[in-house]
Amino acid sequence: MGRELPDVLKQLHAIEIDYADGDGIDFEPFDEFYSEEDTSDWITAWTGNSSLDGSEYLIFGQDGAGGYVAIWLVRNDSDLLQQPIVFFGSEGEVGVIARNFRDYVWLFANGIGPYEAVAYPGLDRPKNEEFLAFANKFAPQHESMASEIIEMAKSEYPDFGKMIEQLCQ
User: Which long-range CB contacts under 8 A does 144-147 form with residues at least 24 apart?
Assistant: First the structure.
């Protein structure tokens, strides 16, 4: 799998994200994936485990506190947009937030970003009209409430948090 942002992810990142003094989405998208070297440095620092290289993560954004959002390359035979999306917070928060890109865009349509999905999984916000239009165009069959998207992701990968905890030293 390549290390280039898919075009549809670039299109999503082109939509302005409003933090709205804490009432909006706390997310800063990147123009490209983190390099392999930067990802390796990050996972080593985040876990304290120098044996990790982070090759299973493609980091593509962060929250305002420095938590990272990544595509988790766990499905060996799937393209990037079919892989789950995960969040690693700057204070140790961690979680699978969407099963794939189509679910991920519906989080944004529901006014929820990656940090909010982990920190406040039951948060109910008004729909974001720009992201809603994007989601209806690129993932119309995946419309769900944010809490349902997060729960489906957690159900599919219930041991993600434990796995990450075991990697920490």
Answer: 144/103, 144/106, 145/110, 146/106, 146/107, 146/110, 146/111, 146/112, 146/117, 146/121, 147/121, 147/122, 147/123
Radius of gyration for the chain, computed over Cα atoms and rounded to the nearest angstrom: 15
Gap between the Cα atoms of 129 and 90, Å rounded: 29
**Token pair for residue 55?**
């090759």
Could you give the percent of the chain with pLDDT greater than 70? 99
Both tokens of residue 50? Answer: 């120098």
- Predicted confidence (pLDDT) per residue in 108-117, tens digit: 999 999 999 9
Q: Between the CA atoms of 115, 120, 122 and 125, what dihedral angle is there, to the nearest 10 degrees? A: -70
Q: State pLDDT tens for residues 2-12.
A: 579 999 999 99
Whole-model pTM above 0.90?
Answer: yes
> What's the average model confidence in pLDDT over 34-39?
96
The answer to whether the CB of 43 falls within 8 A of the CB of 57 is yes
Give the whole-angstrom CA distance, residue 50 versus residue 47: 8
